[in-house]
Amino acid sequence: MKSGIYAIYGGKTFRAGITNKENGKSYVLLNNGKTYLEGFTKNRVGNFVKKVALDELEQAYELYLRAVYRGERFTVILEEDDRVLITTNDEEYANRFGFKFVERAVYEKWVYKDELDKMWYEKQGI
């Protein structure tokens, strides 16, 4: 699954993570996995990363996997073979569709992909 935060920097797309503000600026941490790129340093788990100011990026966005199940829209949080784990924070939907309670305002349900009306990625700018 490709859900997560991404940033485009120098014409390339990287997995990214938002870091704390420093001196009034927001930064992202670009992750290039196990491949070295100039200006990137190896972190303690072996990935090459680079801290970049948000205003230096061409684009930053979060990618979500969405699905329509029995006519209603949900977020997919896990994909496994022929099924997906969908989630909602709506107690009424959770009760109506047989979701399991996980914690306050979090309900989940495993469904087979062929039960879904539609599944797609949705991009939201950061």
Characterization of this structure:
It is a single chain. The protein is mainly beta. It folds into 2 domains: 54 residues, no CATH class; 62 residues, no CATH class. Helices cover 6% and strands 58% of the residues. Strands 1, 2, 3, 4, 5, 6, 7, 8, 9, 10 and 11 form an 11-stranded antiparallel beta sheet that branches. The longest helix has 7 residues. The chain is elongated and about 50 Å long. The two termini are 20 Å apart.
The number of helical runs is 1
As a whole number of angstroms, the C-alpha radius of gyration is: 18 Å
The end-to-end distance, rounded to whole angstroms, is 20 Å
Largest sheet geometry: 11 strands, antiparallel
What's the total count of β strands?
A: 11
Contiguous low-pLDDT stretches (5 residues minimum) are none
Derived structural class: mainly beta
H-E order: EEEEEEEEHEEE
Overall morphology: elongated
Q: Quote the beta fraction.
A: over 45%
The overall average pLDDT, rounded, is 92
Helicity, as a percent range: under 10%
The count of domains is 2
